[in-house]
Design a protein that fits this description.
CATH topology of the largest domain: Rossmann fold
Number of domains: 2
Shape: elongated
CATH class of the largest domain: Alpha Beta
Order of helices and strands: HEHEHHEHHEHEEEHHEHEEEEEH
Number of strands: 13
Helix content: 25-40%
Distance between the termini: 43 Å
Largest sheet: 6 strands, antiparallel, barrel
Radius of gyration: 22 Å
Number of helices: 11
Strand content: 25-35%
Strand order of the largest sheet: 8-9-12-11-10-13
């Protein structure tokens, strides 16, 4: 048996895939269709960390590695290969990067987005990829941009919308609500004192929307629960750090140590300082009522729990 035949025959979808938005999903569908035609597996090849992290630049992500892996599989990947972005990778020329892929896989085809760049300083483009495909005898699939409101969908565009608190618009680009995920950690228990016990979610490097109160869905035991989420510093109680605190409307289980996903549906109001805890408690009651009204006014939407 030859060395090449020992490698998995693969169609590789290339990209960072942050957020796995509708453009990424279209690319994965195209790669999976080609893989079926070529009797190959579909592999999403991506990096565990954003390249900017290697340069010690501030990094915020739309999704955790676990979320990316789950959503890439749902979009059509048979497997997800997530490798560390090291200085050795950063120094590879476009030709050397493709050579690395050929050493690792029996490459039947490479698939990438229209704006994909690769290799040292991002010197490789879609045209470079096509030329290398012709040289080495593998197919190259370049996905056309997916348009929403007449503009190409991109992770950069999603980040801008999330940063502005435009959760409905971000959802249109993602194909699902923008979802924060992380372990529930112990906090100051102010919510319990006010009658609204909250789960404090540690979100790591995920991009947070503007401080404020959001109607949300929390995922517990594979089911969605309506919730209200506060993002901010809790100025009424002299908070100093930004936190993500979620009050689940229909139950208040103890979640410490568990991972919780919170899908942000709509921004209800900005965060502000109240003159007393009683005033804050009254406002939380109004926030809960506003969230319930929002939930009741919408037609019931079935979310894929795995998407959270």
């Amino acid at each position: 048996m030859s060395e090449t035949s020992k490698k998995p025959r693969s169609v590789l979808a290339l990209g960072m895939f942050d957020g796995v938005h509708v453009g990424h999903q279209a690319l994965l569908r195209q790669a999976a269709e080609a893989a079926r035609a070529l009797s190959a597996q579909t592999v999403a090849f991506t990096f565990a960390d954003a390249p900017g992290k290697l340069l010690h630049l501030p990094v915020t992500c739309l999704s955790t590695p676990d979320q990316r892996t789950r959503w890439l599989r749902e979009a059509g990947a048979d497997r997800v290969d997530m490798v560390d972005f090291t200085q050795a990778f950063a120094d590879l020329s476009p030709e050397a990067f493709v050579g690395y892929l050929q050493e690792r896989y029996d490459v039947a085809a490479l698939a990438a987005g229209f704006n994909y760049t690769f290799g040292k300083y991002g010197a490789g483009t879609a045209d470079t990829l096509r030329a290398l495909g012709e040289e080495h005898g593998f197919q190259v699939l370049i996905a056309e941009p997916v348009l929403v409101d007449g503009e190409p969908v991109s992770s950069t565009r999603v980040r801008a919308l999330v940063s502005e608190g435009r959760m409905e618009a971000a959802r249109a680009l993602l194909g699902r609500p923008y979802t924060l995920c992380g372990p529930v950690v112990s906090a100051r228990h102010i919510g319990h004192e006010l009658g609204y016990p909250t789960a404090n979610v540690e979100t790591g490097e995920q991009l947070l929307p503007p401080d404020g109160v959001y109607a949300a869905h929390a995922l517990l035991d594979g089911a969605e629960h309506p919730a209200v989420t506060n993002v901010g510093k809790n100025p009424t109680v002299a908070g100093k750090m930004r936190t993500v605190e979620t009050y689940i409307l229909d139950e208040s289980p103890s979640l410490y140590g568990q991972d919780l996903s919170v899908a942000l549906l709509s921004r209800l109001r900005e965060e502000r300082t109240f003159p007393s805890l009683d005033a804050l408690s009254e406002q939380i009651g109004r926030d809960v009522a506003a969230a319930k009204k929002l939930f009741n006014s919408r037609k019931k939407t079935v979310y894929n729990p795995k998407g959270l």
